[in-house]
Amino acid sequence: MSAVTDAGVEREIDLGRWKQAAVERWWLVAAGLVVGAIIGGLYSLSGGSVWEASVLIAPGQPFSPQGSPVLSYTSSPRGIEQVVTSEDALKRAAKAAGIGVGSLRGHVSTTTVSTGASSSTASRGATLIRITVQLHKPKHAEDAANALGVIVRNDTSPYVKQSLAAYATQIASFEAQLGQLQKRINVLNGTLSRSGLSDIEKLIVAGQADNAQTRFGTISDNLSLVRQQQTLAKSVELATIIEPAAAVKTTARSRRNSILVGALIGIIAGAIVAIVADIRARRT
Which of 12-21, 180-189, 264-273 has the highest mean pLDDT? Predict the structure, then answer.
């Protein structure tokens, strides 16, 4: 038991001495920080330059016929990331950019962009998705990023597309009915304007005209509602490309991260040198 206690005490003493050595020889630690940061900065430059292109996507938020949001991968940043980094998406984007799929692997990333809007239903106003591609040629980066944006827009909204098709069918039907009703109303009004009708005949025609006009109003209201639903589906439920990709030149390695990592390694190395110097000084 005493041996274990002695070992613990010795360990505490060693740690205390190491800390004191680093504090007393702080210039070694500071020099390690500066040298490490410089080396990290130089290392970031050694990676050369690449072209980075990003396309900004507003993920779709589908709604049920009752108006409640439908939770699906189409509105999930993680789901969209899985889509754009899948092998199928990479092959399609590579083909659109005229490059090999191997050039894209590991060079596609997604980030979530908050718009600052709060939403309890996770509507599209809450977040945007930025899809970024890094390649050595700007045109290839732009084409690949835009192709991935199109893939997200087209492949993540099957339910919404079916809804849009249904809305289009309903709108065409309502417009056709309104056209027929308008012709009937015109005929009935023309009949009422003619002379020679008895009072009973006028009453019958007027009733038919009123019924047609009432039905016209009801169908017009239905048409207006469906058009609103269609607009909602196009502008909110359907994934949309907000900003197409435009390539910008950047370093292959993050200079900030490289400097921070280099500085951290430099601090550790400086502390080790300080401890070694202290041990040698105590032995002499």
Answer: 180-189
pTM: predicted TM-score of the whole model, two decimal places: 0.57
- Per-residue HEC secondary structure of the chain comes to CHHHHHHHHHHHHHHHHHHHHHHHCHHHHHHHHHHHHHHHHHHHHHCCEEEEEEEEEECCCCECCCCCECCCHHHCHHHHHHHHCCHHHHHHHHHHHCCCHHHCCCCEEEEEEECCCCCCCCCCCCEEEEEEEEECCHHHHHHHHHHHHHHHHHHCCHHHHHHHHHHHHHHHHHHHHHHHHHHHHHHHHHHHHCCCCCHHHHHHHHHHHHHHHHHHHHHHHHHHHHHHHHHHHHHHHCCEEEECCCCEEEECCCHHHHHHHHHHHHHHHHHHHHHHHHHHHHHC
Give the pLDDT confidence of 237-250 residue by residue, as tens digits: 788 888 998 888 87
